[in-house]
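Our preliminary data section would be incomplete without showing what the modeling component actually yields. Below, a chain of 280 amino acids is followed by its predicted structure, encoded as tokens that our downstream tools consume directly.
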Amino acid sequence: MGQSSNPAAPVCKPGFAEIDWSTPWFAQFAARGARWQQAALSSYGELLGEMNADALQSLQTTGRGERLAFIAQDDLPPGAAYEAHIASTGCVPTRHNLHDFFNASVWFAFPRIKAALNARQAAAIDALGVGPTRGGIRDALTLFDENALLFACADPSLSTALRHFDWQTLLVANRAAWGGRCEVRCFGHALLEKLIAPYKACTGHAWIVEVPGDYFTWTVAARDAWLDEAVSRALTKTPELTSRLFAPLPVLGIPGWWAANEARSFYDDTAVFRTGRRTR
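Predicted structure:
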């Protein structure tokens, strides 16, 4: 793992101080995250303590109904598979770094989705064991866990534009639709880690969620709860998960998320806004 996992060590880890909770990708985690951030800047042990205090209050569970908790990475038994350990014990091995900080944040923001991912990952390990490669389903589950965006959309034409890499329709001609007919939530914790230092080519894998027409009249909390339930159900019921179920979406191209994209020329960069594959 390349770092000490001593929870008592009062080490100020690089990166925690750089989290800007006002950005669109971090704002959804700010209420809890700002408190965790201060704990992380103090010590590893304080961070785990804050996470576990919240877990006790939330009564959230992992993929097989075990109570959610967070443990030091060194407490993962030798030879134990990470996902299987979480499913069987409820304990999420957590390092003192941004990657695992954001992973824990997502467990609280979208607990049903995280539990559904964990259940399927553990089931795949039970069926196939832990080999040199994950296999197609586990690869897709990992892609979701690490790099997914939730693209909530009430307008099929916008979902089609995303699937077809039609950036002019999605991000330029229909800018006014964002927030009223479509929106995005960051989910993947590796993606969130990358957004500490955002760059133009930073791309998430969008999971398209068809939402009801009145979705955009609901509170943010109600929308998040609906997404959590709907996406977790879809992950449970989709038998063949593959990477082709996702649509790449450059994060800084999302209207309102980056000041430079107010200029139409921002989208002329074909190295970022590529034509890609054309799907039905």
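Confidence is low (pLDDT under 50) at residues 1-5, 7-12. The first strand starts at residue 69 and ends at 72. Preliminary results of this kind motivate Aim 1 of the renewal.
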